[in-house]
Design goal:
binds adenosine monophosphate; Rossmann fold; alpha/beta; elongated; Four Helix Bundle (Hemerythrin (Met), subunit A); binds zinc ion; 3 domains
Length: 465
């Protein structure tokens, strides 16, 4: 039974999809004015682990991610004065983002949607809020009237009445009725690009974007909305206010927020200059799989301190797993079963599932895998691992790779010399009419992505596509 910590209740809750077995999930995507840094990728990696875990559990998943391709930063850095130029600028960074995701084995969400393609949806949502008295117009801009939504502050646990003006409140916008009210639609500024809509000439605020797009594709009430802790306030608080006031329904069932990637105790952020992009790190020779491992190994609700040393350690951890797997796959073992190892492997597989079910406790899941590796390595050294231990160990590693996706794919891991050696052994087995053994070797190669073909010139091998 999967349990997730819901920011709204502050509790670990059993997760049940609203609609039978279908999970509808929304994740706040990147603001595409530059390359994403690995702090951002910590969030996308945990969301990817969740995505993979839900599918592993047999759920049907509809996962939507937005691309913020219009906001203060994209406008500032593109210098665009018309939509075409803005799109050209943001497309470069959107493409770079998905290239980086691919490098990190982050699966693509089922739907990726751009803010600039959903202006009509945002306009009609704002009109709905105006009609129902939750929003008002001032000098061509539109604001959400916080006093009309008593539940405001519930997600972030804010005391709205006693809320002080601070860094998080934009006090520049003095034309609002109340300084706490936030912008839904910003009137065109001189020289800035705009959309000409029923609300007038202007552009949407950031928060309305996610309300409009999530509800358009997932319905008014859906299962999971994720982000990092800095999204809780004001972004997600505002999304709730806008959406629930527009529909009169609860918006999201489970809110998930990952902790930050920090450097020397400070959040990694572009504005602080303490960041690395994925490209910075791969250019320095760090492997993407070691970076993914580093980001995945600490449970998402715990802060993760980034150091180069931690990536080196991840690299060694992956090597240890790969070496072990190679020995298990290519070793020749006596028939039968080492009971102790079999029990350990079954335990590790159960523990892996229980850990991931426990709010994606990745550290504990990895611990289970390494415990097995430790014991099985001892058995390998003492030549007590048996043939029938192989499938259970393989099963655990298949589950592990399905979710963590940090091991080399088995075909590329297998060296030609090893393949040739196994083929020679198979040939010898066939000649001595040990067909069971020769079939075993063929299956072993197949499990690692190597296909054997009988031709008139003898047996050839190729890597499976
Ligand atoms: P942005 O592209 O700035 O909209 O951020 C994309 C995502 O990365 C958001 O969900 C942010 O909350 C998240 N994020 C930003 N900085 C960090 C960090 N240092 N650690 C983890 N997540 C972060
Ligand atoms: Zn969002």
């Amino acid at each position: 039974m999967l349990k997730l910590t819901n920011t709204m209740s502050g509790q670990l809750e059993e997760f049940h999809p609203l609609d039978d077995n279908h999970v509808r999930m929304y994740t706040c995507g990147p603001t595409v004015y530059n390359f994403s840094h690995i702090g951002n990728f910590r969030t996308y990696v945990y969301e990817d682990l969740l995505r993979r875990w839900l599918k592993f559990k047999g759920c049907r998943l509809t996962h939507v991610m937005n691309i913020t391709d219009v906001d203060d930063k994209t406008l500032r850095d593109s210098g665009a004065t018309e939509v075409g130029a803005l799109k050209e600028f943001t497309l470069k960074f959107t493409q770079a983002f998905f290239e980086d995701c691919k490098t990190l084995n982050i699966e693509r969400p089922d739907l990726v949607v751009n803010a600039t393609d959903h202006i009509p949806e945002m306009v009609s949502l704002i009109q709905k809020l105006v009609r129902s008295g939750h929003a008002y117009e001032r000098d061509g801009s539109y604001y959400f009237k916080i006093s009309t939504f008593p539940a405001y502050g519930r997600l972030a646990k804010l005391d709205v009445a006693g809320m002080k003006l601070g860094a998080s409140v934009d006090v520049d916008e003095y034309e609002k009725e109340n300084v706490r009210d936030f912008a839904l639609w910003k009137q065109r500024k001189e020289g800035e690009l705009y959309w000409d809509t029923a609300l007038g000439k202007g552009r949407p605020g950031w928060h309305i974007e996610c309300s409009a797009m999530s509800m358009r594709y997932l319905g008014e009430h859906f299962d999971i909305h994720c982000g990092a802790v800095d999204n809780i306030f004001p972004h997600h608080e505002n999304e709730i206010a806008q959406s629930e006031c527009a529909t009169g329904q609860p918006f999201v069932n489970v809110w998930l927020h990952g902790e930050h990637l920090v450097v020397n105790g400070e959040k990694m952020a572009k504005s602080k200059g303490n960041f690395f992009t994925l490209r910075d790190l791969t250019a320095q020779g760090f492997s993407p799989r070691a970076i993914r491992y580093t980001l995945a190994a600490v449970p998402y609700r715990k802060p993760l301190n980034f150091t180069f040393e931690s990536v080196h350690q991840s690299h060694s951890a992956i090597e240890r797993l790969e070496e072990f797997l190679l020995r298990v796959e290519t070793g020749h073992f006596e028939p039968g079963q080492n009971e102790k190892i079999e029990e350990k492997a079954r335990w590790a597989r159960r523990r892996f599932v229980e850990s991931m079910d426990d709010d994606l406790n990745t550290a504990q899941a990895l611990g289970a895998v390494f415990e097995l590796v430790h014991e099985a390595n001892v058995a390998l050294a003492g030549e007590t691992l048996k043939e029938n231990n192989r499938p259970t160990i393989r099963g655990l590693f298949a589950d592990f790779q399905n979710i963590f996706a940090v091991l080399k794919d088995p075909a590329s891991q297998m060296l030609e010399a090893e393949i040739e050696q196994l083929m020679a052994e198979r040939q010898a087995a066939r000649q001595s009419r040990q067909f069971k053994r020769s079939d075993e070797i063929r299956d072993q190669l197949l499990a690692r992505g190597i296909v054997l073909e009988d031709t008139k010139d003898g047996v050839r091998w190729k890597r499976k596509d």
